[in-house]
Amino acid sequence: MAFNRNHPTENHPTEKARTKVLSAEECLAKTVKGKDGTLEKGCDVPTHLKATFRVGQAILNFLEGTRAGDLLEKRDLLGALLHDLGKLTPAFQEKIYGALGMAMNLVGTTVLGENHATASRTILKGWKLYNLANLVGDHHGRVCTGKSPGAHLGQSDWKENQRAVAEALCREFGLELEDVPYKWGSARFRLVQGLTSLADWLSSGLELEAEEELSDAKIQSAISRAGFVPFRVNEGLSFEEIFGFPPFAVQSLMAEKMVPGGVYVLETEMGGGKTEAALYLAYRLLEKERHNGIYFALPTQLTSDKIHERFKEFLKKILPAQASRRALLLHGQAWLRNELYSSDGTENEQRTVDRDAWFDHRKRGLLAPFAVGTVDQILMAVINVRYNFMRAFGAAGKVIILDEIHSYDAYTGTLIQALIKLLREMHCTVILLSATLTRQARNDLLGNSDGEPDPLESCYPLLSYRDNKMVRFEKTPPPPGKTVSIFSSRNLQGSIDRALEKAENGESVLWIENTVHDAQKVFRMLRARAGKNIQVGLIHSRFPSYVRSRQEKYWTELYGKNVTAETRSGGKILIGTQVLEQSIDIDADYLITRLCPTDMLLQRIGRLWRHRRLDAFRPPTARCVVEILNEEPYENRPEYQKPPHEKHYVYAPYVLVRSQEVWESRSEIVLPRDMRTLLEETYAEREETGYYQGLKEELEKRKDVLKGLAHLSQGDAERTGKDEEGLGTRYNERPMVELLLLEDYDQENGRLKLHGREDFLTLPGKNATPREKFLISRILIKHLIRVPECAAPPYESFPLGFLSHLLYIGRNADRPLRAAFIAPSGGSLRDFSQNPVDLENYEIGYCEEIGYFYTPKKK
Q1: Is the distance from CB of 542 to CB of 548 less than 8 angstroms?
Q2: pTM score, two decimals?
Q3: What is the per-residue DSSP string for 653-709?
Q4: pLDDT(88) > 80
Q5: How confident is residue 622, by pLDDT bands cut at 50, 70 and 90?
Q6: Would you say residue 383 has pLDDT above 70?
Q7: What is the 3-state secondary structure (H, E, C) of 202-271?
Q8: Three-state DSSP class for 357?
């Protein structure tokens, strides 16, 4: 391989002020740490480029024979081969030699912040390889739109060197130095971006020293240590062998309709076995259709945590005993559960040698073959954040399961439609699960919005699936029906009386409110009147996570499917918010719920008489009844008056209007028979007049705004490429922050006392070991409370620089973490100087019984 081997030269006589030129072998790509910890020369640029190509080739070999591997070929490694061409420049060499304490005087001016990816892009654009230029320019995750100054790239000798290296590398590996045929933003472009960056990550991890020979064994070892080891599943397993019970009709049907690369929508009632149906189909696709793994996505961290436990048991059944059976958990707090250390603080030996540990980095998680997490993790494949292409690459060829698909607004729903389109192009099979979809929503997800109605679409349960040609529908025999009586209440006090009466009779009452404030209010009223023989509990999101976990464990033992006659006996009332709709498997004898949209109301009713085995434990007086509380019923008026701007609605008023009409016209329903009718009557398009027309127009305007924001977040308008903190997968009009409550802080000795803990916590210093920091960070995070920013103490009242090495405290105006002092008994909050926290609009505080509270100040 011949390169320009000129040694550093003096100024060329024909060019004024010509700078020195380094040979390709003198151009460093990396530095490495020596034995004494000081920086030393690493490998040169051509060696690193060759190593990256060879690692990329090893990745292709790993993927060979899989659905993701079908999408890639050798020529897709051209970006990996040339990604760091911009390091063959005087600007970069000046910087890297400067880090070694060697002034080279290659540029003639000081170079600050020179980006070698930008230089690579500029060089390739100069060769008119525009798509390839964008590919290598973005390989560090940021969208590259700039241009390196000419002086930074070097004069003619440098440019000749750059071209000679590129041509020689292409000859050596049998590639043509030509532009790639895919454009920025396309599915194929993202896939190759992912391959390029992954090859760069792994080759950089080799830490090649100067003049070190790279062996195939070292490359394969690096690939294997990172977790890229082929898996196989145990073949021929029946549904019952995996899950321990025979399949329901809908589960059998789904397993029979195997369409690799298709999109499935399974609609069946709450508790109808959707999870098992999806997992068994995923198993068969792994077994027969060469899929690359499974990602199971859910709406919340809590639901992800609960499915994760079930998913791990599933993997134990389908994977051989000697295989890695680890299922990664992916969400913002997952690192607390992906244990790195044992409870005594020592390193978890089994965990630290786990070859899947490489995937724990937040941007790499989807590369793991098996994972469970929030839908946000995979939605970042379609919004314009850093390394979105790595998430797309990680998803390629997998079975992607999206649960509770009904629970998203127009913003996230628009992103999900874009995601499904991308996943199909990535050779994925997509499985969507819901109990409460409308026909329109289902067809939007299937890409069948203009399709002719099919008579089977009115059936329930229903399996819909799309292959490459058309959408097909399959019905199954419905399960035994459950008759639910409906009682409408206009008076809160009347509902309180009935809840207490039911509990006095020994019933387990569930009360679900739409807001934390209303749940706290109801809890106080019930607690004040309940006798000693009635237990009253409260669950919502404004408790620290350790308190909420304790509450959920306790109340699940009383309301869960595994209760005994003894634990079920005795009257009890559990009050909560939407977390009780879908996150916790509980069973109530009597349900009281605030009016909410029909699909959410059906989810809540799914907690009523949920498990038939518990019927034997119900009091003789118990009846399957849902009481819908609606203190301010909607009435149509001749004119529309827009609600005050400061009034915050959890749900769109127009949807509540339609839901109110549907439910108040009925005295009983039969589930699941009536679910389709209830949903379609609520959401069917119709003309409105007067007040209702105004509410409808407000809803349509909001949907249009959210859809527009979703398209913008995908970078449709321009190549923006922001950090993950800059764009979101959810739209929230009320920014949230985390709050840490302290009882004391011993600044001199670096100790603090958290509210709810008896002992002081000694904070590790900034130079402490990762293990020491991890253990304290985990404790701190379990004490955080998520609250609206408008009702949180300002950051300035309690600066948190002393925790910056343990928790993310933000910067400038972005301060996602706040703190305050509080007395051991709870009450109002105090700032760092022990003065009362005084907000302009709210009175705030915390108590153990009701959690964090804030009430508007009287004007």
Answers
A1: no
A2: 0.90
A3: HHHHHHHHHHHHT-SEEEETTTHHHHHHHHH------HHHHHHHHHHHHHHHHHHHH
A4: yes
A5: very high
A6: yes
A7: HHHCCCCECCCCCCHHHHHHHHHHCCCCCCCCCCCCCHHHHHCCCCCHHHHHHHHCCCCCCEEEEECCCC
A8: helix
